[in-house]
Amino acid sequence: MDKRLHSLDFLRGACIIWMLFQHITLWLANANAFPLLDLIVNIFDGFGSGAFLFVSGLGITLSHRKKYQKTFSKQDNIYKKLRLKYFLKAILLLVLSFGFNLFIYFVVSGQDPTVIWIWFILQTLPISMILAWPLLNRNKYYKILAALSSLILYQILISFLYPFKAEYNHPLFIIQFILFNGDHLSPILGFFPFFIIGAFFGDIIHEHYNNPIINNPNLTFFKKRIIPLFLIGTSLILAGIFLIPPGIISMGDKSFLFSFRSISWLTYSLGMLINAYTLMLTIEKSQFLKINEKYRFVYYFSYYSLSIFLLHYIFDIFFIPALDLWLVFIFWSMIVLGVGLVTKGIHGLIGNHFSLKHQLGVAANLIANLIYKEEIVQPPLKLETMPILTSTETQKKVI
Length: 399
Known about the structure:
This protein is an all-alpha fold. The chain is 71% helix and 0% strand. The model is unreliable at 247-256 and 375-399 (pLDDT under 50).
């Protein structure tokens, strides 16, 4: 498919705006505001790192499917180069993550070396990319199985290993640290399902655009895809709230409906995200709302998502947590408006040069080109047309 998905850009941009809300309220709000903020975050935090992983899995799958169609087999250089670029992007992003963590350790925290390995979004995303590679070309239902398996494994391991979180001399502390350090952020086993469910959506959209039903494709897509997805999302929401026990492990003081980052919260958030994106996709497909221009403000948050994510930590240096909640909301709105206007201006001036995501792609492409040098394909030699000689003419030529 060559058409850009506005719903994908909209959701990624919304993730960044929500991230700004979370961090700005954390850095600015006084203690009296936190009970209500905890409630808001517990309900809507699926639109944070979970949604960013979801939209990353969706976008990567669509891009991969499009490029994979141009290869002939897994043995040709085009496919090998495609695979190398994919892993290089993941590795470069992981290097960026460790670089950022080292900056936090030396400049901000100074006392806590555990921040060098911590499951925040910049670490979870590249690891998710690496884990997802074997599944990208598989049937979409394998992705559902992988997501369910990851959630089950998450619940089993965190229940078993959590008691060793502070047992620094115990051998199991190392495993607990590797898998769950930063368990209040985006631990890989709990958040890999968001990425792989996004890849599942990518398969559905790719199939629709590349194998359209001739007779009313939008209606068929609505009946066979949209309605079942809404049912799945709603079932997960209800299961997360009413059926799945919240678990004995609390990831903090948040206790609305379920413990933060528990299996019930993850299930609820996955369902909420599935319904939210399905609704966005329905609006885009039906053209119920003309979003081509209306979504442009959010588009800049999507286009420069990685750059905004890293640069917004500058605010943490200057902010003091002393404001009431209503003042925090006003301040957050002003920052969102300011960032939107600045990135719009940057987009007009230098385009993708400010996009860190684009620069990582360029770097991966350069390295891949050095490893797999572009083969110069020589044009086939043109056989000159020889004049057809009669037998008499041939004899004359010979003589």
